[in-house]
Amino acid sequence: MVVIAALYHFARFPDPAALRAPLLALARAQGVRGSLLLAPEGINGTIAGPRAGIDAMLAHIRALPGCADLDWKESRAETLPFGRMKVRLKREIVTMGQPDVDPRARVGHYVAPQDWNALISAPDVAVIDTRNAYEVAIGTFAGAVDPGTRSFGEFPAWWRANAHRFHNKRIAMFCTGGIRCEKSTNWLLGQGVDQVFHLQGGILKYLEEVPPDQSLWQGECFVFDQRVSVGHGLVPGDAAMCHACRRPVTPADRAHPAYEEGVSCPACIDDYDEARRARFRERMRQVRLAQARGAVHLGEGAMPEG
After folding, report:
1. How far apart are the C-alpha atoms of 305 and 37, rounded to whole Å?
2. Alpha-carbon distance 245 to 265, whole Å?
3. C-alpha–C-alpha distance, residues 240 and 222, integer Å
4. Fewer CB within 10 A of the end CB, N or C, for the chain?
5. Is 192 helix (H, G, I), strand (E, B) or coil?
């Protein structure tokens, strides 16, 4: 079985570019694939490979400045969910666009998965999903508010326009693995909201630890690799990915007349002209040829949470 490790850590990296080559070389030597982001504020990403390879990568990351207490979440898959290994340099490891946000200074109250149901069931609590609309569309917590954002960077403007809706409410926030909540709760505290909570370990930890018969989760959780979605126990879900727009597509979406594998889906059918769709069809042809040879086409990659 392939081990998949989803991780992030906020730390001060004065020269993140210097960290890139050793990480990439180690991953290649250990047969590890995936995607990591490096920025002055830390590291974020998902990697997959053999047990020994993942252990070597995690040990290397824990040895980076300020990363000794790195936490991560593991799951399993029968095949590698990535086609290659990428280590990229970014301004932020999850883009919010708020220069004063610093999760190392303070964040909201962490809530363990076992305590989450009680919190979000309280009448004075407003539950906010900090993920993008395409992620929310395939699964979320019962009663959660969907901001309808296309990217995490839109969240501050959404909050400013909607803060009045949550007067005298405690705010409970969640995301896939926890990283977006580190920033969003820090930002809300800076806006004067003092009762802010977030799901420790994110949806992935909740789905791992909370039994289905006790769960308030509805649907599947989008993940940033070729599994596309997972359910309780972190087993792969039923969603696939539209390789045109990178959004998840459900079985119902795939039965829609607008769906053409690798070319369009109901969400993006009007976004591209016929010339672009022709290029998508050629790319899909190359993917199928690679699959027939037992190879992985490099266009099949994914991205870290953000």
Report:
1. 10
2. 8
3. 10
4. N
5. coil
Q: Distance of CA 222 to CAs 73, 153, 297, Å? A: 15, 19, 22
Read off φ and ψ for residue 239, nearest 5 degrees. -75, 150
CA distance 32 to 83: 10
Sign of the dihedral defined by the CA atoms of residues 21, 27, 28, 30, in that order: positive
Count other Cβ atoms within 10 Å, centred on residue 275.
8
CA 145 – CA 125 distance, rounded (Å): 11
Residue in 175, 221, 242, 268 annotated catalytic: 175
pLDDT digits (tens, 9 = 90+) for 242-274: 989 999 999 999 999 999 999 999 999 999 999
CA-closest candidate to residue 244, choices 270, 224, 222 = 270
Q: Is 175 a catalytic residue?
A: yes
Pair 7, 72: CB distance under 8 Å: yes
